[in-house]
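To close the chapter, one final illustration. This time we ask the reader to focus less on the individual chains and more on the assembly as a whole: which components sit near each other, and how the overall shape emerges from the parts.
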Amino acid sequence: MSHTVPSAGIRRARKQRTRRALLDAALRLLEHQSLSGLGLREVTRAVGVAPAAFYRHFESTAELGVALVEEALDGLHDTIAAILADTRESRDGERIDRTVDLIARHVRDRPAHIRFIIRERHGGVRPVREAIGAQLRRFAEEVAVECARHPDTRGWSEDDLRMLGGVYVDQMVMTASGFLDAVEEEDPEAAAERVASVARRRLRLINLGRRHWLG
Amino acid sequence: MSHTVPSAGIRRARKQRTRRALLDAALRLLEHQSLSGLGLREVTRAVGVAPAAFYRHFESTAELGVALVEEALDGLHDTIAAILADTRESRDGERIDRTVDLIARHVRDRPAHIRFIIRERHGGVRPVREAIGAQLRRFAEEVAVECARHPDTRGWSEDDLRMLGGVYVDQMVMTASGFLDAVEEEDPEAAAERVASVARRRLRLINLGRRHWLG
DNA sequence: GCATTCAGTGTACGAGTGTTCACTGAACGA
DNA sequence: TCGTTCAGTGAACACTCGTACACTGAATGC
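The assembled structure is written out below.
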C-alpha cells in the first residue's frame, strides 16, 4: 500500500502543475499582445499566484517565451514529420492536398502556439526570435534531406536542396498564418478554403519549378 | 521684404517638425522592441518634449504606428514600382539579379522602416497589422497586373495571377527580412550575399514553375 | 494693434510594473 | 521522528505608465 506511491515527486508534480499553468496563462494572454508587452504580474495574476512565485520557474518573461517556443515547435516538428512520412508514397496531387490538410488541422488544434510562433518570429525579444529562427532552419534541413529522396531532385547540389527545404518551410508557415487569419473573417470556413486553395496552387507552382530545375 | 515669407505656416511647419521628430524617435525605439510595448512617454522623452504634447499629433501609439505603416509602405511601393518598370524589358536572368539588388538597396536605405513592417505585420496591434496586410495585398494585386503582360502567363485565370502576385510579394518581404538579419551576423557582407543567392534561386524556381504552369 | 488660436508646458493623479526579502508550511530524505 | 528543502506568500521598494487640466506665449488673421 505504502510503496504504490513510491515517496517521490508530489512536490515536483505540484511545481510542474503551476509551471504549466503559467505557460498556459501566458499563451492565452499572448493571443492579443506580443511577448515584449507581457507582464510577469499579469501572468501570475491570471494563474492566481503571487508575483514572486514566477521566479521559481522562470527568471524573466523572455525565458518563459523560450520555453513556449520549444513546446510550440516540438508540436510543429511532429506535424512536419507526419507530413513527410504520410505523403512519402503519394502521387503529387494528393500529396499536396494532404499537406495542406495537415497544416490546417495543426492550426485548428494549436492555434495559440502557432500564433505565438508567427508573431514572435520577428518580434522584439531577441532570444525568442533566435530560438524560432534556429528551429525553423533545422526543419528546412530535415525537409531538404527528405526532398533528396525524390526523383525530381536527383543530382541537385546540397545548397539547392537547402534552398528548396527553406521554400517549403516558409510556405508552410505562411499557410498556417493564413489559416489563423481566416478565423477572424466573417465566413471563416470559406476564408479557410480560400487559403487552402492558394496554398495548394503555390505548392503546385513550386513543384513544377522543381521538376524543371535542371536542364 | 515682408511678403517673401507670406505670413503662412510658421506654426504649421513647427508642428510638422515635431511630428517628424516623434515618428523618427519612435522608429528608432522600435528597432529593439515592438509597438505594443512602446510607451508614449518613452517617445516624447526621446524627442525632448512634454508627454502631453504627444496628443497634439496622435491619440495613441497605435495611431502613430499606422502613420509609420503608411510612410514605410509608400517607400516600399516606390521600390516595387521601380522593380516592375526597371525590369520590364530585361531577360529573365538579369531581371532576377536586378530585383534582388533593388530589394537589398531598399533595405540598406530604410532598414528601420522595413524592420518595423516585418515585425508588426503579425504583431500585437490590430489596426497596424491590418493596415500592413491591406497594403501588401494591394501590392500583390499590382504585381499580378504586371505579370499578366508576360508571355509565360498568357491565358492564366485572374485567381492564378493573384496567387502568383502574392508569391512574389511574400518572396520580396522574406528576402528583405533576410537582408535585415544579415547585418547582425559576424560577416554581414557575406551573409547578405548568401541571402541574395538564395533569393535569386527561389525566384528562378518560381519562374520555372510559372513557365510550365499550363499544360 | 489686438483678440484669438493652439503647440507645447508643468504638475498631479491613480494604477500598474519588476524585484527584494523574510516568512510559512507541507513534502522530503535519512 | 526530525531537521532540511523549497514552492509559494505578502508586504514593501522605487519606478514607469497614460491621462487630465490649467497654463504660457508665440504665430496668426482681421
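Residues 7-8, 10-11, 14, 39-42, 51-52, 54-55, 60 of chain A lie near DNA strand C (CB under 10 Å from a C1'). The interface with chain B takes residues 32-34, 36-37, 118-119, 121-124, 133, 160, 163-164, 166-167, 170, 174, 177, 181, 198, 201-202, 204-213 of chain A (CB under 8 Å). With these observations in hand, you are ready for the problems at the end of the chapter.
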